[in-house]
């Protein structure tokens, strides 16, 4: 499995080293995603900066949608990504966002050799793994 996250500042980008014994790799370079080929790696997280147009679109449009949770299974050669930006007005940021997702789909397809790629877009209320205090 691969996932991508974004960082606000360079120091927020993940280190290339995971905890000893972990099957998760945290990377900041696309080439390092090749670690997925290692049998001891089950998850590779790519931390990266994103285009300012994509970031603006995400903040201004996608975050306004309260129940943002979309899952698609797409053909990497011609992915239909319209549901990911449904309800958002056409804008340069929207097109940049869809272009970025298409690029990630192509990258994942090349790395895995899969004929179809699963795409999930979700807004998280808190960081993954954060426990709620009762």
Explain this structure.
The chain is globular, with a radius of gyration of 16 Å. It is α/β, with parallel strands linked by helices and 134 residues long. It has a three-stranded parallel sheet with strand order 1-3-2, with no helix packed on it. The protein has a two-stranded antiparallel sheet with strand order 4-5. The relative contact order is 0.16. The termini are far apart. It has helices at 52-60, 92-112, and strands spanning 2-6, 24-27, 43-48, 69-74, 117-122. Mean pLDDT is 78; it is low at 7-16. The protein has two helices and five strands; from the N terminus they run βββαβαβ.
Give a nutshell description of this structure.
This protein is α/β, with parallel strands linked by helices.
Keywords summarizing the entry:
alpha/beta, 20% strand, 2 helices, 134 residues, three-stranded parallel sheet, two-stranded antiparallel ribbon
The total beta strand count reads 5
**Poorly predicted ranges:** 7-16
How many helices? The count is 2
- What is the share of helical residues? 10-25%
What gross morphology would you assign? globular
| Distance from first to last alpha carbon | 32 Å
Mean pLDDT across residues? 78
Strand residue percentage: 15-25%
Subunit arrangement of the protein = single chain
Strand order of the largest sheet: 1-3-2
Written as H for each helix and E for each strand, in order along the chain, the element string is EEEHEHE
Question: What structural class do helix, strand and pairing data support?
Answer: alpha/beta
Main beta-sheet annotation: 3 strands, parallel
Q: How large, in whole angstroms, is the Cα Rg? A: 16 Å
């Amino acid at each position: 499995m691969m996932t991508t996250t974004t960082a606000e500042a360079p120091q927020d980008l993940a280190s290339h080293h995971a905890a000893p014994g972990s099957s998760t790799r945290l990377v900041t370079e696309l080439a390092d995603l090749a670690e997925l080929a290692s049998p001891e790696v089950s998850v590779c997280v790519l931390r990266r900066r994103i285009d300012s147009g994509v970031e603006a679109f995400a903040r201004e449009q996608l975050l306004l949608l309260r129940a943002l949770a979309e899952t698609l299974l797409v053909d990497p050669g011609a992915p239909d990504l319209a549901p990911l930006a449904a309800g958002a007005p056409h804008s340069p940021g929207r097109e940049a966002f869809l272009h970025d997702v298409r690029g990630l789909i192509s990258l994942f397809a090349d790395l895995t050799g899969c004929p179809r790629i699963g795409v999930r877009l979700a807004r998280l209320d808190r960081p993954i793994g954060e426990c709620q205090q009762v």
